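Lab notebook page, bench 4
Experiment: in silico fold of construct C2
Operator: M.H.
Input chain length: 163 residues
Purpose: comparison with the prior construct
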Amino acid sequence: MGTNESHAKNAGNKSPDSRNSHPILPPRGDYQTLLSFQKAEVVYDITFRFAHKVLSRGDRTVDQMIQSARSGKKNILEGSKAALTSKETEIKLTNVARASLEELLDDYLDYLRVRDLTIWEPDSKEALFVRKLGRVEPQTYEMYREFVDLRYSESAFCIQKEA
């Protein structure tokens, strides 16, 4: 029996657990369990509501902010699914998500700045409260609903920054 045949035969004798105990690419695709996806979904939900409640109808910023939030969420999803076959694609899509969410963060900052609204200090009670909520799993919009409804723009910015 040749070397290749011997390896093939021995590989066939391994238990399924020993073959898969250290896969080169760990199984993925379960994006709903990813904290980054959950937070991106919360950011999308808040942004959608913020844009339609607070911004003027016809303002191009409405579509831009919603699209940035959607892109962040969807690219995390696609990156997670792509991880099944390509780490490189997962990394690229994750970076696209990060860039989209960073653009959205800047839109929230612009909104606050040009209206002379308060940008919470990192150690303010509001920012600390949002950070505390951000450590709870799973992340859902409902966790933030009451807080966001009280101070839409400031809390939306802070939650986006923490995501």
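Observations: Residues 87-114 form the longest helix (28 residues). The two ends are 58 Å apart (CA to CA).
Next step: discuss at group meeting.
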